[in-house]
Each structure stands twice: as C-alpha cells, then as structure tokens.
Amino acid sequence: GQNIDQPTEMTATEGAIVQINCTYQTSGFNGLFWYQQHAGEAPTFLSYNVLDGLEEKGRFSSFLSRSKGYSYLLLKELQMKDSASYLCAGHSGGYQKVTFGTGTKLQVIP
Amino acid sequence: DVKVTQSSRYLVKRTGEKVFLECVQDMDHENMFWYRQDPGLGLRLIYFSYDVKMKEKGDIPEGYSVSREKKERFSLILESASTNQTSMYLCASTPDTSYEQYFGPGTRLTVT
C-alpha cells in the first residue's frame, strides 16, 4: 500500500514563493503527481515526476527524491487565484492506480 | 480537450434506495476511475476499470459496485444507499499512454 503525508493548510503572501512538501512510503513506486483543486471544482493535473530532480513549468515547479521518499511543489510569484488545495498523489503498481494524499489547502493573502 | 461528464452535480437520495452515478468520457480512454472525496480524508479510490467489462476494486469498494459495458461509460452503483455514503463522487479517466487523470466535475450525493 501507500502512505502519503502533506501539511493540511498553508498561508502565503501574494507575490511570494511557497513550497508545499509531500512525503510518501510506497512499494512499487512509479512516480508522483501534483494536482490543483479549487473549492467546489475537480482536480486538475499540474505535474508528474518519475526521475529525481526539479521540473519547472512556468510559475510552478515540482521536485522528487526517490531515495528520500520526498517531493515538493514550488509556486513562485503567488497570485490570489493560486488559493486552492494541492494534492500529492503516488503512482505505483502495474495498473494506473494512484493514491492521493489529503491535500494542502493554500490561502494566498494580499 | 478531454471531456469527462457526470450525470448530476447534486443528488439527494433516501436511505435504502438504489443509486446510479454515470460517467462518460469522450476521448477513447481505456482506464476509468471512481473516487469519493471527504474532508480530512482526501480522494479515495472506490473502483477502477482498465477495459470494457473489466473492473478492479480500489481501497474502499464496500457498499459499491460498478459497470462498464461500453468504453466511454463507467457507472457507479450504490445497491442500498446509506448515510455514510454522503460524499462528493468524482470520476476520472486516463489513456494507457499517459498517467494524467482527467476528472469530471463531481456529483455531490446526500443520503438522508
């Protein structure tokens, strides 16, 4: 099985940088996802990391360390619209099965 | 654009009723999933299907069944609804060539 841990809530200031951490314990690990979910809406895909290292995609970057069972999502130049829950999810096994963490609710304040 | 649609955004049912939640995707994806999302518990996988007529139990299948008669449609069935099945239900799909899951808008089910 899988165990995914991430902080429940975070607050950051508009224009700043925030890092959301995720640790995982899993067997047969393939890769790690980050999804964004605004209140009342469906999750939308942000990133999928398979290899160690940092992957940058505009204002958002995602990092993975397989040896440490650790990932983070880095959001730069925060905007008010970035207020949302950020879901860390581990992919393991032969099927397309993904296990989600409980999500980190990020509040961006002026 | 991939589109995943769910039959209802809001649904209210009584305890003991049989409930059908329908999900349709228009991108010929092989894999489809049903999750429920509850505060403090996150998204939990109920069932998934990797092909027509094929299904696999997820982490919390008790009290649910599924049906996939056509590739584009995946149905979640609550045989006898109970109040602890009040939740947000999310359907997702993904092709074999990618791991990115595309989610539907969700159905908020209330069982009274």
Describe the structure concisely.
The complex is a heterodimer of chains A (110) and B (112). Chain A is mostly beta strands and 110 residues long.
How would you characterize the overall build of this protein?
- The complex is a heterodimer of chains A (110) and B (112).
- Chain A is mainly β and 110 residues long.
- Chain A is built from no helices and eleven strands.
- In chain A, strands 2, 4, 5, 9, 10 and 11 form a six-stranded mixed β-sheet that branches. In chain A, strands 1-3-8-7-6 form a five-stranded antiparallel β-sheet, with no helix packed on it.
- The radius of gyration of chain A is 13 Å and the shape is globular.
- Chain B is an all-beta fold and 112 residues long.
- Chain B contains no helices and eleven strands.
- The radius of gyration of chain B is 13 Å and the shape is globular.
- The model of chain B has no long low-confidence stretch (mean pLDDT 94).
- The chains are: A mainly beta (110), B mainly beta (112).
- Chains A and B meet through strand 4, strand 5, strand 9 and strand 10 of A and strand 4, strand 5 and strand 10 of B.
| Total strands of chain B | 11
- Which percent range describes the beta-strand content of chain A? over 45%
Work out the strand percent of chain B. over 45%
N/C terminus separation of chain A: 40 Å
From the N-terminal CA to the C-terminal CA of chain B, the straight-line distance is 37 Å
Biggest sheet layout of chain A: 6 strands, mixed
- Which word captures the global form of chain A? globular
Give me the oligomer status: heterodimer
* Shape annotation of chain B: globular
Q: Given the helix and strand composition of chain A, which structural class is it?
A: mainly beta
Helix content of chain B: under 10%
Order of helices and strands of chain B: EEEEEEEEEEE
